[in-house]
Amino acid sequence: MAELPSSIRKVIESFERLPGVGPKSAARLAFYLLATPKSFVEEFAQTILTMKATIKKCRQCFGVAEAEVCDICSDPKRNQRQICIVERALDVIAFERAGGFGGVYHVLGGVINPLDHVGPEDLTIEALLNRVEKLRQLEGVIEVVIATNPTMEGEATALYIKDQLNRRFGELVGKVIKITRIGSGLPMGADVEYADQATLSRALEGRREL
Amino acid sequence: MAELPSSIRKVIESFERLPGVGPKSAARLAFYLLATPKSFVEEFAQTILTMKATIKKCRQCFGVAEAEVCDICSDPKRNQRQICIVERALDVIAFERAGGFGGVYHVLGGVINPLDHVGPEDLTIEALLNRVEKLRQLEGVIEVVIATNPTMEGEATALYIKDQLNRRFGELVGKVIKITRIGSGLPMGADVEYADQATLSRALEGRREL
Questions:
Q1: Cβ contacts (< 8 Å) between A51 and chain B: which residues?
Q2: Under a CB-based contact definition with an 8 Å cutoff, are residues B178 and B166 in contact?
Q3: Radius of gyration in angstroms for the set of CA atoms belonging to chain A, rounded to a whole number
Q4: Could you say which of A20, A77, A91, B24 is the most buried, measured as most Cβ atoms within 10 Å of its Cβ?
Q5: For residue B132, what are the β-bridge partners?
Q6: What percent of chain A lies above the pLDDT cut of 90?
Q7: How far is residue A146's CA from residue A150's CA, in Å, rounded to a whole number?
Q8: Residue-range domains of chain A with CATH
């Protein structure tokens, strides 16, 4: 069997390291770039490098930002006292696309996952507590909406954050500081017949009066 | 809805232009690169640019090459008189992975497809005819294995190539110049019950004595 030139093999290996790209897609992507005009490929590489050079983590919410503080955190129309906690910066985009949320975000940077050696100290939980502490010194109710994924790790992380808020703010929780969890149940357009048990139980638990 | 920083949007748009990458995967890839060490991203961009700078089209077969002529065409152990015609350079890799083919290749660069405005003159068919012409001046049988995909366009292109060979080499075809087409039928591991009609008809037509 003839070997691929090493420069192509390296590109395929690079693509394979990206999430959701298997060996076959990686090869297809590499050969696509080979057949594509040089100007597009150079632009492609350049946009990636530019992004990497210009995007920082927002100092307040750890989402993506072009300045020290991101557009959402610095928007005066946003309610700074309503903080939606998400796992990843990409989740912020998902909520923004859905629309309807007028508060701000807090990006954890992942979830607690002992198997992957991710502990609470690897996430931005301490920064969240300090953020709430600062808000508490001003008047008004604070709402912390925990929007980690409804997976085992996401649920455990949600409980851990609730615990930490309770430990730090004690009796303020439930009065000045409201902790909520995003709803879980059947996704829109789903079919009860095909839903798994855990989702159905959650849907029942989360039933609301019509 | 808050907008994404433009440098991220540009990366997402670049990824979306790649084959098989939809808007969601494109966003996931962009955010993956954002969260990844700068050194990896720089290496990623660099390997792509290096590939683009070092890889040429083989002068003989139009496959990928680091020199004027590719490793397969310049391999003295390969039978230069057995030419497997494929649509894309990636198809060469597929055949090489499968192993067992000791000849050389000819990459068409696509298939005849009027809807996409791809005519025979956009492919390397003329170069193929010249290649066969040169081989014909030496002693021995030439085999042209047409391995375009068994799609409508691939079949039409196969017939067109056969026609052109007939027109150019007349009565040599079938004697000195053998034209073959790769087998088509049920793929290994498939199930007759679930096969489509066209595949089943082809499998019957292509039956062989055991």
A1: 7-8, 10-11, 30, 33-34
A2: no
A3: 22
A4: A91
A5: none
A6: 78
A7: 10
A8: 75-205 (3.40.1360.10)
- Cα–Cα nearest to A199, from A150, A142, A145, A140: A150
The CA-based dihedral angle spanning residues B171, B172, B173, B179, taken in that order and rounded to the nearest 10 degrees: 180
Q: How confident is the model at residue A195 (pLDDT cuts 50, 70, 90)?
A: confident
Q: What is the largest CA-CA distance in chain A?
A: 72
- Inter-residue contact A104 to A83 (CB < 8 Å): yes
pLDDT at A29: 94
Q: Which amino acid is at B172?
A: L
Strands A142-146 and A177-181: parallel
Q: pTM score > 0.80 for this model?
A: no
- Contact in structure between A7 and B25 (CB atoms under 8 Å): no
- The ipTM, to two decimals, is 0.80
Tell me how close the Cα of A4 comes to any Cα of chain B, in angstroms. Answer: 8
Neighbours of B49 (CB within 10 A): 18
Q: Inform me whether the C-beta atom of residue B1 falls under 8 Å from chain A C-beta atoms.
A: yes
Per DSSP, what are the bridge partners of residue B103? Answer: B79
Rounded-to-integer distance, Cα B158 and Cα B85, Å: 9
Structure token digits, residue B99: 């192993």
Q: Which residue has the tokens 């030139």?
A: A5
* Euclidean distance between the first and the last CA atom of chain B, given in angstroms as a whole number: 67
Whether B23 contacts B15, CB under 8 Å: no
d(CA B86, CA B109): 8
Rg (CA), chain B: 22
B 149-208 → A contacts, CB under 8 A: none
Place of tokens 């366009």: B153
Q: Which residues of B touch A45 (CB under 8 A)?
A: 45-46, 48-49
H or E element that contains A179: strand A177-181
Residues A1, B28: C-beta atoms closer than 8 Å: no
H/E run at residue B103? strand B103-107
- Would you give the DSSP letter of residue A187? P
Examine the pLDDT at A1 and tell me if it is beyond 60: no
The angle that helices B89-98 and A23-35 make with each other, rounded to 10 degrees, is: 140
Does A34 sit within 8 Å of B18, measured CB to CB?
A: no
Nearest CA in chain A to B40: A14
